[in-house]
Amino acid sequence: MLEDPTAAAPHPAPPSSWPATYPQGYAVVDVETTGLARDDRIVSAAVYQLDARGAVQDHWYTLVNPQRDPGPVWIHGLTAEMLADAPRFPEIAEQLSARLADRVLVAHNAAFDWSMLAREYARTRSAAPVRQRLCTIALSKELGLPLPNHKLETLAAHYGVVQRRAHHALDDARVLAEAFRPSLHRAAETGLRLPLLACQPLTEWSDGPAIGRQRSYRQTWRPSRKRPACPYPNPGRYEPGGQLVQGMRVAFSGDTSVDRELLEDRAVEAGLHVATSVSRLTSVLVTNDPESPTSKTAKARSFGTPIIDEAAFMQLLQDVTPAPPTNR
What we know:
Helix 6 (152-158) crosses helix 7 (169-190). The protein has 328 residues and is an alpha/beta fold. The chain folds into two domains: 25-198, Ribonuclease H-like superfamily/Ribonuclease H (Nucleotidyltransferase, domain 5), CATH 3.30.420; 226-317, Rossmann fold (3-Layer(aba) Sandwich), CATH 3.40.50. The protein is built from ten helices and 14 strands. A hairpin with an 8-residue loop joins strand 1 (25-33) and strand 2 (42-51). Helix content is 30%, strand content 20%.
């Protein structure tokens, strides 16, 4: 286990009046995984528990046996041999839950870490005790930090935090905890409303459809609640370089790094209409492979529908323009 540098830098002076609406505690999380797809698994996890003002209370780290190939060893450094005797996720779920309970989950690109955790918990037929998450990328944008990009190492360098082992879950969680603390204080000092998002657990799962006399080895996942209809009228197409507006119709094509269901839930939470197909009414198509010869990309081009990638869409979701009031 890495050294815990809880006093690596002095805490900023607390504001005279801390926002009463701010959470009472945070769980800074980082997970390393076998990949980015919906059937990939966690190979290591770390949690730094912080109090209401960002001071470190405790930290925890574990390897996890993914019960499959470990994936990009050249990134996380964890080989099959190293993970062979590690506990499986059901064996560490209780310890992890104790560290997440009653706290806001904080992560860098939190949608990804949350999606991986949600799926692991769903495999155990349970749910993570997390109701809200906070993405430090979104917080950095809200604060207007002068960052050339939104990589973790860039945020760390901005605050003078030394990164020792990139892509090691414990060190990444430590780095993020140290970088989150001054961001939290800056937000409190300016009275900024934290960009908190609801965490919708995946509590139902089933085996894939039968193929002949055997069942598919993959699982299909679905959110625990049916998505409501979009309450806002369609304001039209997205203007490249502008903002998304509540009511816009968004369609997705191809694979996404964030679980598709969670990505769509995030769009619905922001007030967008998730469409299953592309038509002349579609405001924007999201795809990581705009050159792919799919029917959706072909239709988008024929209709002149704007096409953006997942990363751009995730950034736009941080600041969706409210729908204009309707006259009744």
